[in-house]
Design brief:
The complex is a heterodimer of chains A (408) and B (231). Helices cover 58% and strands 18% of the residues of chain A. Chain A has helices at residues 3-16, 18-56, 73-76, 79-84, 94-101, 135-141, 164-170, 205-211, 233-247, 262-305, 307-315, 320-357, 360-365, 371-397, 401-406; strands at 60-65, 92-93, 106-121, 124-133, 146-149, 159-162, 180-183, 186-194, 201-204, 219-220, 222-227, 257-261. In chain A, α2 (18-56) packs antiparallel against α10 (262-305), α2 (18-56) packs antiparallel against α14 (371-397) and α10 packs antiparallel against α12 (320-357). Chain A has two domains: 3-53 and 271-406, no CATH class; 91-255, no CATH class. In chain A, β7 (180-183) and β8 (186-194) form a beta hairpin. In chain A, the strands form two sheets. Chain A has a six-stranded mixed beta barrel, surrounded by four helices. In chain A, strands 2-10 form a two-stranded antiparallel sheet. Chain B is of the alpha/beta class. Chain B has helices spanning 50-57, 80-90, 106-116, 121-134, 150-162, 180-197, 208-211; strands at 6-19, 22-35, 39-44, 65-70, 73-74, 91-94, 168-172, 200-205, 216-221, 224-230. Chain B is globular and about 50 Å long. Chain B has a single domain (6-230), classed as P-loop containing nucleotide triphosphate hydrolases (Rossmann fold, 3-Layer(aba) Sandwich), CATH 3.40.50. In chain B, the strands form two sheets. Chain B has a six-stranded mixed beta sheet, sandwiched between helices. A four-stranded antiparallel beta sheet of chain B has the order 2-1-4-5, covered by helices on one side. In chain B, α3 (106-116) packs parallel to α5 (150-162). The chains are: A alpha+beta (408), B alpha/beta (231). Chain A binds chain B through residues 1-2, 5, 12-13, 16, 308-309, 311-322, 400-402, 405, and chain B through 55, 58, 60-61, 80-81, 84-85, 87-89, 93, 95, 99-101, 103-104, 112-113, 115-118, 160, 164.
Chain lengths: 408, 231
C-alpha cells in the first residue's frame, strides 16, 4: 500500500475513535505545552539576566566582611552567606578605606550600610530596606538609572531616593518628587525615583547612621569600588585581597572578608537559573513520558479493537508492513496533533505566565519561543508517538489472518 | 507438473490443532483437485472441517502436513508478504458476516483491495464505480455499512471481492446471515459470475439447498472427504 494511503487510513482510524484519540492527545498536549512554556520562560529569563549583566559593567567590586568556607566556590560570592559568616568582631572600617586608597587601580570608593526601617506616609506604615551610601561617589558608581528627579548630591542632607515600586504601588497614594515621608521618626524628602522595580530607600550614609540605631559610625556593611580598567578585574581583585589581608593581619586560612564582582554574582545567578530551568524541563519531560505511555496504551487497545479489521485487511491482500505502517502513522498522527496543540498552548502559557505570576522582572525579560524549540517539539511529539506505537503496531501486523478473522 | 486446468490441488493435507496437551485433527489427509471454472460446494455438518479447509484454500492458514498447490504454486513455500499479495490478486473472499470495515463507506471498502495492490488512483476509482454499478449499488456507494441492509452489505462484500478480478471466489456461508429471498439473489449473482465471468467459485455451506447451484459437491465428515459428487 502506498504511504499516502496508509496515512489516509491512519487518519480515518483517528477520526473514528474520537474520544480515545482526544484523551491520548491531551496527554501529549500537557507534556509538550509545559516543555514549550518552561523552555521559553527559561530562555526569556536567561536573556533578561544577560542584559542585566551587560548593564552592570564589569568594573564594580563589592567588599563585604566575613568569608564563607563552605568549599563551593560559588557560595563564596554570595554576599548574604558571607555576611552571615561574619562574627561581631569582623567589620569593615576606615582603615580598610585607607588601605584601598593605596591601590592605584581603584578609581572610586563608596561605603554603604544597610538595614530595615519603619517608614510611614499619611498614616500608612511599612518596613523597608534602607541603604546608606556615600552620596559623593555613589552616583558615579551605581548602575541604577533615575526615572524622575535627580541623583543624590554631595550637599544633600534629609533627602532620599526610592525604588519605582515603592513610589507607585507600596502606599495607597503614589509617592512623587518632593513628597516627604517619615523614616524612624525623621522626615525625608524624595528627590529621585529610580528606574527599577524595587522598594529600596537610598540616603546619604551620614543620615543612615542616625536612622539605623544599631550601626556604629565609620563601620561599613560593604565597600563598593570602581576600578579604572575593567580588563584588569582579576588582577585588581588579587591586589585588594592581598592588601587587605596585610592590613587586617589575616592569612588565606583565616581570611575575614570577601571581594565579589557584580558580574560574578550575575553569572552565578544565570547558572542557577539554567539549573532551575533544566530541572523544570525535566519535570515537564516526565509528563511527556506519561503521554507516551498513554499513546502506547491507546495503541494496544486500538490494535485489540481492530483485530478483526486487521484480519479482513490481510484476507483482501494487506501485507504485514501495510498494517504496521497504518498503525505507526496513527500513533504518529496522535503525537503530531498533540504536538501542534501543545505548542500553541505552550506559547499561550509562556506569554501569559509572567503576568499571571506577577513577576515583573520576568515579564520585562519576556519569554522567548524560538522556532527551533517549536520544530524540535513537533518532531519529538511525532517521533515519541511512533515510538510508543511500535510494539502495538508490530503485534498487530504479526497477527495471523485466520486468528484475526475469528476474533470477536 | 500440474495439469493446466487444475487450479487448486490438495495433496494429503492435514490440519491438526493443539488443544492443551491434546491434538485435535481438523483435517485428515485430504486429497482433492479443483479445476478452473468449477463451482464447488463444500458441505458438511458443524465441526466437519469445512471452515478449516476454507481457510487453507484461502491461504489464510497453512497445513500441518501435506502440500497445497494454488495455480501450481506450493503456498507453504511463499513468504507471508508474498502470500498476502498472491492472495489479494488470486482470491476474492465473501464472508458470512460480510466483514466490511465499519468506518469506511461502501466505495472505500470496495476500493481497499486495489489500494493494497498499489493500483493507480484513477484506475482504482473507475473500477470501483463500475463494480458497484454492476452489483446495483451505485446510488449507495457513499453509505457506511451500518446504513445498508444485510443484503446490500453482502453485495458490497461481493463487489470488494470482484474488484481485483480474482480467479477464485471463496464464499463462506454467503447467505448465512440473510433471509431466504435475499440469500437466493446472492446465490444467483454468484451463479451469474460463474457462468458469465468464468470465475471459479468455492462455497462453504451447511445448506444442501444452496449446494444445488454448484457443479461439484464435496462432503466432509470428521475432517475427511466422504463424498465428491459431480453435476
Amino acid at each position: 500500500m502506498k504511504l499516502s494511503k496508509c496515512l489516509k487510513h491512519a487518519l480515518n482510524m483517528m477520526i473514528h475513535s474520537k474520544l480515545r484519540s482526544w484523551l491520548t492527545i491531551i496527554g501529549i498536549v500537557i507534556g509538550v505545552s509545559s516543555v514549550i512554556a518552561i523552555v521559553s520562560i527559561g530562555e526569556g529569563m536567561e536573556q533578561s539576566l544577560n542584559a542585566q549583566i551587560d548593564d552592570l559593567g564589569g568594573d564594580i567590586l563589592t567588599i563585604t566582611p566575613g568569608f564563607s568556607r563552605s568549599g563551593d566556590k560559588h557560595f563564596r560570592y554570595l554576599p548574604t552567606l558571607s555576611t552571615q559568616a561574619t562574627d561581631d568582631e569582623t567589620v569593615l572600617d576606615r582603615s580598610d578605606i585607607q588601605a584601598l586608597k593605596g591601590i592605584p587601580d581603584i578609581d572610586l570608593i563608596d561605603t554603604q550600610i544597610r538595614g530595615n526601617v519603619d517608614v510611614s506616609y499619611r498614616g500608612e506604615t511599612g518596613s523597608l530596606s534602607l541603604t546608606g551610601v556615600d552620596q559623593k561617589v555613589w552616583s558615579k558608581i551605581t548602575t541604577e538609572d533615575i526615572r524622575d528627579g535627580r541623583m543624590l548630591d554631595s550637599a544633600d542632607q534629609n533627602v532620599i531616593l526610592i525604588g519605582a515600586s515603592l513610589a507607585d504601588n507600596y502606599f495607597d497614594q503614589t509617592l512623587g518628587i518632593n513628597k516627604v515621608i517619615n523614616i524612624e521618626g525623621s522626615s525625608f524628602r524624595i528627590v529621585g525615583i529610580m528606574d527599577d522595580q524595587s522598594t529600596n530607600v537610598i540616603m546619604p550614609i551620614q543620615m543612615a547612621y542616625q536612622v539605623l540605631d544599631d550601626k556604629e559610625k565609620d563601620i561599613y556593611d560593604s565597600i563598593v569600588v570602581k576600578i579604572r580598567d575593567e580588563e584588569n578585574l582579576d588582577v585588581v581583585v588579587e591586589k585588594i585581597e592581598y592588601k587587605l589581608m596585610i592590613t587586617r593581619h589575616v592569612t588565606e586560612s583565616d581570611r575575614d572578608f570577601t571581594v565579589t564582582s557584580n558580574v560574578q554574582i550575575m553569572e552565578m545567578r544565570s547558572e542557577m537559573m539554567s539549573s532551575v530551568s533544566l530541572f523544570l524541563t525535566a519535570i515537564a519531560a516526565v509528563s511527556l513520558l506519561v503521554g507516551v505511555v498513554g499513546i502506547t496504551n491507546t495503541m494496544f487497545t486500538s490494535v485489540l479493537e481492530k483485530t478483526k479489521e486487521i484480519g479482513i485487511m490481510k484476507a483482501i491482500g494487506a501485507r504485514n508492513r501495510d498494517i504496521l505502517t497504518i498503525f505507526l502513522f496513527n500513533a504518529g498522527l496522535i503525537g503530531l496533533v498533540g504536538g501542534i496543540i501543545g505548542v500553541i498552548l505552550g506559547i499561550f502559557i509562556s506569554e501569559a505566565l509572567p503576568y499571571l505570576m506577577g513577576d515583573l522582572t520576568l515579564a520585562s525579560g519576556g519569554t522567548i519561543v524560538s522556532l527551533n524549540v517549536v520544530i524540535l517539539a513537533l518532531s519529538i511529539s511525532v517521533l515519541v508517538g511512533m515510538f510508543a506505537g511500535v510494539i502495538p503496531a508490530y503485534q498487530g501486523s504479526k497477527l495471523k489472518p485466520v486468528d484475526a478473522l475469528r476474533y470477536e | 507438473m500440474e495439469p493446466t486446468d487444475t487450479l487448486l490441488n490438495f495433496e494429503n493435507v492435514w490440519k491438526i490443532y493443539q488443544m492443551g496437551e491434546v491434538e485435535v485433527p481438523a483435517l485428515q489427509g485430504i486429497d482433492v483437485k479443483i479445476k478452473k471454472g468449477d463451482f464447488v460446494a463444500i458441505i458438511g455438518a458443524s465441526g466437519s472441517g469445512k471452515s478449516t479447509m476454507m481457510n487453507l484454500i484461502g491461504c489464510l492458514d497453512v497445513p500441518s502436513k501435506g502440500r497445497i498447490f494454488l495455480k501450481g504454486q506450493d503456498i507453504s513455500q511463499l513468504s507471508e508478504s508474498d502470500l498476502a499479495t498472491f492472495r489479494g490478486k488470486t482470491i476474492g473472499f465473501i464472508f458470512q458476516q460480510y466483514n466490511l470495515i465499519p468506518t469506511m463507506s461502501a466505495f472505500e471498502n470496495v476500493m481497499l483491495p486495489l489500494e493494497f495492490q498499489e493500483e493507480n488512483d484513477s484506475i482504482a476509482s473507475k473500477r470501483t464505480r463500475e463494480i458497484l454499478e454492476f452489483i446495483g449499488l451505485s446510488d449507495k456507494m457513499h453509505y457506511l455499512p451500518s446504513q445498508l441492509s444485510g443484503g446490500q452489505q453482502q453485495r458490497v462484500s461481493i463487489a470488494r471481492c470482484l474488484v481485483t478480478d480474482p480467479e477464485i471466489i471463496l464464499a463462506d456461508e454467503p447467505t448465512g446471515a440473510l433471509d431466504s429471498v435475499t440469500g437466493e439473489n446472492i446465490l444467483k449473482m454468484l451463479e451469474k459470475l460463474w457462468r458469465e465471468k468464468d470465475k471459479t467459485i468455492i462455497m462453504v455451506t451447511h445448506d444442501l439447498n444452496l449446494a444445488k447451484y454448484a457443479n461439484t459437491t464435496i462432503e466432509l465428515k470428521d475432517g475427511e472427504i466422504i463424498r465428491i459428487q459431480d453435476g
